[in-house]
């Protein structure tokens, strides 16, 4: 309700004034802080921390808290009065020193605000389970430092607040949702770090938002154990990173590694190579009418991202080790250091968890230690061999050692060999046990050219054999791989060389349905210590040729069941009208793993399906519409199925004098109110209003890929969706 009408308005207003005063004082203190009397080395860090705090306080001054709870712990008489905000605040006024004025939304007790109703409750904190009664749950709307609304929450009020938040979106970028996190989202954000999680969430269920809030929560909760840079977010592309970039600092998170699969592979395999365009295959599949070629592309991608590929790479690595391992024993100056069979056992048994390079280095270290221990034996043998040689030289058979001249010669020879003993040992050892010296790209090329292995993988499919050959040519001539090759490159790096520099504790992967089994496997192998939160939606799996179509496969083959799959079925983005229309489309895609969305009860305009005589009429109609929509909406997207359609549309728009930004690839930065983009680039993004200019039967056919693409386009809209078609609309829209 309007704040002024609430019975506690006066106290609440006074409280807000007091809090703002405390914040102002802290800002003032920081502004005038001097760094005398502190060690010079720590000054940069202190300045950095103080600047961070200052940023937080400036934000908090305008909107210091959003919630309040009263909690009475069992067996305690005192009622805890807790205000919850984005940043915590302590009272340093003399008589309240140390009292918490605002509690961070990530603190254990704050879960009561998100997750529990008035009455008996419990929550968990480091000290264990705490029982008690929740006596009050209140929400505030504070804007620019003024108290506008106070709402005492029961279940209905919660829905109202959520609806208000959803209707009130005013930005093209994703925003934090700390004041309206829903119970099922809260459970994921606060899930135990020690276990990996897969979240199957429908379009608009808040996966990306949750991913970022989870990172913020983990950093806060484990701040004494892990540094922020031990957490990592893997996003699908740079456009997406740009889309989320404002939210992490807003949530008080800095220094978290935000990366894409391409960047990460380059970090791990630090060699120079180029990677084909991320969407290249998908584009060809969308645009190409040649079914045979599409079949081949799909099959190739499937192979390279599946576990069979890993297994065949294992054979390649095994054969390589077999070639590296010497057949002979290692003997130096007559001393046996290691027998060939023992060496191979060491390699395959003791050191099997290490890379080939690391194993060789460890075995060499063992040999070096042995060298030190056997020095006397080696010297004796050297002496004896010189002596024997001298005797052999003298065919009289008489011991010539007593001869002075001979003695001198022998002594010199002995000194020389003693002096170079270590050097010679090392030389012989390195020649005996050779390290993998080629680049990872060269090994990969070698693998691709191994027709025996590739044949084992693809059988008698000549077109696939040809495709593998073609790939090895690309690597040879252009040093170029495809996005589907990245797991293999990482795996070779991991198995042959080393990946030790990556020390991550938790990885959050968004749009996880675009990752194949092998990709997850290799990430898990490399980031041994890390657990995962994987968020995705099978219904949006437009890259299913290389992605995941069933989470159970990932659960079983990668995580060996040590990972739970959780489901989010409520969609917060779109109106009921839009979601119902989108659900009808996705229901036509024949896939048992697809889960349809339940829209949160927010109604809006009906979806417009508009027939026109020809493309030019469509452009005219859109031009008219845009004039109106520009006033009503902050972000408008015209989403065509492919780039070819976008190009046509773009030229028509320009001719009509309409200013529109055409997003062609994932490196693009989008900054304008009206954007034009192809369907596959729209995934993950959202817009107030979406216009689909090519909803005709000619463009979207009744097949899985087209169904998913259309579903993705439709579910990008928050408030309005218009679909145009010529002659007949797509059967998917019937
Ligand atoms: N609890 C919430 N309170 C307010 N807004 C929310 C809440 N949860 C989600 N939203 C809003 O719903 C929209 C969709 O969220 P988000 O983009 O994170 O969903 P998603 O599951 O990643 O979607 P998609 O898979 O379709 O890309 C965003 O505008 C987000 O702010």
From TrEMBL:
Its EC number is 5.6.2.4. GO terms for cellular component: cytosol. Keywords: ATP-binding, Helicase, Hydrolase, Isomerase, Nucleotide-binding. It comes from the Bacteria. It is an enzyme of class 5 (isomerase). It holds the Pfam family UvrD-helicase. GO terms for biological process: recombinational repair. SUPFAM superfamilies: P-loop containing nucleoside triphosphate hydrolases. PROSITE patterns: UVRD_HELICASE_ATP_BIND. ATP binds at residues 201-208. GO terms for molecular function: 3'-5' DNA helicase activity; ATP binding; DNA binding; hydrolase activity. Residues 180-575 form the UvrD-like helicase ATP-binding domain. It catalyses: ATP + H2O = ADP + phosphate + H(+); Couples ATP hydrolysis with the unwinding of duplex DNA by translocating in the 3'-5' direction. Belongs to the helicase family. UvrD subfamily. This is DNA 3'-5' helicase.
